[in-house]
Design a protein that fits this description.
The protein has 305 residues and is mainly α. It has helices at residues 2-36, 39-65, 79-109, 118-145, 148-177, 182-209, 216-227, 263-280; strands at 234-245, 248-257, 284-292. It has a 3-stranded mixed β-sheet with strand order 1-2-3. A hairpin with a 2-residue loop joins strand 1 (234-245) and strand 2. Helix 1 (2-36) runs antiparallel to helix 2, helix 4 runs antiparallel to helix 5 (148-177) and helix 5 packs antiparallel against helix 6. The chain is elongated, with a radius of gyration of 26 Å.
Amino acid sequence: MSKVKNIDKRKKFVAGLSILSNVTLTALKILAGIISGSMSVISEAIHSLSDCLASVLTFFSVIKSSQPADEDHPYGHGKYEDMAGFIEGLLIIFAALFIFYKSFQKLIFGFSYSAENNLGIIVMALAVVMNSVVSYLLFKVAKESNSVSLYADGEHLRTDIYSSLGVLAALVLIKITGYTILDPVIAIMIAGFIYKAGYAISKKSFTKLLDHSLPENEMSAIKDILKEFSDEVSLKQNGIKARQIGPTMDIDLILQFPCDTSICECHKICDKIEKRIQKLYSRCSISIHSEPICYSKNCQKNCTK
């Protein structure tokens, strides 16, 4: 239990750090964009604003999902993280569409651009460094805790790293060549990258909201554990169901025992299986239904001893 509490504390810490980082970068990018008139810098400010909103959403979803199960939510609050991941993906998509719109508008109707873009270059370089550090921490804790919302927030910041690098390159090229047309062109390219990331996050989160089964490799790992107990028990055909609920796995098993196995023996074996699965997946809820191997709806045998 202490391990779970420690993970929850780390989740809250990195989620809070992400908010602080995004608020700082959003303010700096807006300032640099206004001073330079650069559409690519302004697009990055919009991107960071969506990052900021997503980080706040992640923080509250992490707090909510860490609450224990209650009468109204007997399966816990993990779905809050799945919902947060889905909304974050939509925020990224909307940010990308807005950047597309503003960039094409600049290309068609023209735009003013300040030759003084040193501030933009400095801010973009700072954004790359800060987002690299924070996204690394988010991915690290997301992997340890199996957190959908932290992973989505990390992806959010990773798109910001690549887009900031693109803007940084554009600003340097504009400073060297004087071709200001590069500014909205780079912004459009960035928007395409942002849209792709937002779509991927939304799709993944939406799949989990619909209680999609676990990936095949994770299902296979559970079946491999059951094979270790093949001398004592067997998995009924189609007797395994598993889904992801936020950071927690929900696993249902139907196991078949020889008819002469006592209830006590069944219980001991089930306990061993649960411990083996929980050793592999620390945050999981396991429900096991036991039945005699000869069981069928029309069974006429007397299995009692």
